[in-house]
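Lab notebook, bench 4. We co-purified these components, and the gel suggests they stay together. Before we commit to crystallization screens, I want a quick structural picture of the whole thing.
Request: model the full complex, all chains together.
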Amino acid sequence: MISSKSQKAGCSHGRQTAAGFQRLPVTALLIATGIAVGIATILVGRRDATPQAAPAEIASSHPARTTTQPPPRPAPVRRVLAETQRLNSPETSPQEDAVMLGELIRAFRRNSKGNPVGDNDEITAQLLGRHPRAPAVGLIDPNNPAIDDQGRLIDRWGTPYFFHALSANQMEIRSAGPDRTMWTPDDVVGDGE
Amino acid sequence: MKRHQKEERATRREFVRQSACAALGVTGLVNTLAQLRLITAAMAQSTPGDYKALVCLFLNGGNDSNNLLVPSGDPATDSLRYDYQTARGILALDRSLLAPLTVPPTTDCFDQYHGGIVHPLGVHPSAAKLATLFNSGELAFVSNVGTLAYPIPTRTHYINNLVPVPPQLFSHSDQQVQWQSSIPDRPFTSGWGGRAADLLNSSYNAPGSKVSMSISLAGINSFQIGTTGEVQQYVVGTGGATSLSGYGANYSSALATNSTWQNPVYLSGDAGTRLRAFESIVKLAHENLLENEYNQIITRSRLAEGVIGAALTEAAATGVDFDGIFNTGFNVGGGGTVTSLGLQMKMIARLIGGRNALGNKRQVFFCQVGGYDTHQTMLASHSNLMAELANALKAFRDCLVDLGVFGDVVTFTASDFNRTMTPNGTDANAGSDHAWGGNAIVMGGAVNGGNIYGHFPSLKTGSQPGSIDAHTNRGRWIPSVSVDQYSAVLAKWLGAGSSEIEAIFPNLPRFDDPFTSSTPNLGFL
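Here is the predicted assembly.
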């Protein structure tokens, strides 16, 4: 019944009836109230934008205050870089592996606002699209043999790569090399610049 | 205390200023700062006669402060030491070698994560001088401070991505910039030291002061970049002002000894002729704005050179033996050398000694030391770094005491981040990797020293009960104190009022107020 009245009021434009004019004060009141609410909303919004924004208001929009449950996350979209399937294969050299990983980092950066962050396991999760702080886009196959059972990218000698975050656009990628010891002369170093 | 209660206490002057701030809020940070500067200058109640200098000491690379401030109890009975040893592994320092701290039983730093139980702590054995300063009440530590966009109440909130965090955590250059800007969740435009200088310069320093309020001993830096152009950072070398090259040391090949910028006396040789020609061009007015700005920079620099020279002369006249103090501090007679950091801090001490010649009542200094990115052989390299840090701070303190201004200077440390609690290897080559919240140092006569502020973190890694580890097992402490809170206390001491604090640190209202709430435990000044 209410919706029916609304529809009628909506159809009365341009041909006001006597009953319509009788409703005019009520309509005007509603419009005035709407304008007042709108102005109040704008003013409150502006107050929020000033440096004096109340901490409580910021906190109220703060997810930490309301829940400890993670938001639902879609399954990663696969956009696997074909080259990564060749990581650690006999067809490639350690230097080429490092170059491929650099390309992987660059591809991530194109989908995101910067490099993946954290330790090897976190960076690998981000490249797989499985990290809560990264786009749900898988750039590498989760079954890639270059990923070990702890979710880390490993070199052809089985040592996890070291990802050295220099900046949002620069990532040094280090393999420990044949001696499996990091920071020795046989290390293989690439970059994701 | 709630914000509205604080505002009720505000004076009419504060009300006017805050009203102006509110009106300016929609115009953006830059305009707000520019207007606040004018308002602050106009409303300065009187010209403060006191001198205050803030010294930012940046530890470049990410200081492993897990081994700066170390649990020293018996692991059989002290759970904190047990957790430290368990997590640190090969990187654990022998507790019998630590320099003991006299931690007051009333300290609040163990309330949040340790149930108020006070655990014995010590300082890295190579930094024993810091323990002496702590125990004499001249130095304090601020525990578990780091970049935050919002408070992170628990580890679960971080792991489940329920709270926005600063972008590019654990990345060197991003975290350096975020520490120095204190606005981690926005693209960099200015440093908090620069914003503070913009607002305070006209209130405290004479109009057209002879030299910038922001002096750097480590080149152009993010910390001192302002937004209004009111204060341009001025870079000084460890030997003093950097002169134009090609005219001999301090223009000795080109100018007579009684020469000044205003009344130059050029020597007759080639260098004198060239400098005469150059300065004639510089003093001309140009239609091109870029040319004019270049000339102004040259002019300012030449004028500042003279002022720096006068300040160093004034410092020498104080009778304080700067060289002797630093040489002793760095054991020069015993085979040591005054390091780059030592030289930077010595020059800052000399400039403070010549503060009358500089003519500023408020000064912000910046110095920096590298080498803290200890991914390998951390124990050996960090030991050297801690020795250098302690030697520099102690010698700097001694100079300031002799100058009689130790109470007027506050020195604080900042660094990219702390490092992982767990090592990245099992032998002496092991190091630690990029982490997050860490321990900072604050030193000065005005510091409520001999205590630890902030909250000493739980040292439990991974998902152990009570853990604040941001990783599954590496020991990356989620900060309990934000850079905003830590820095705001420093800025307030320098002279920033509540309105300026809000302009300098726009994210501060997201966190517990460090001035009215006891929760952050930041009463170090």
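The first helix of chain B runs from residue 3 to 8. Worth comparing against the SEC data before the next meeting. Confidence is low (pLDDT under 50) at residues 1-27, 41-48 of chain B.
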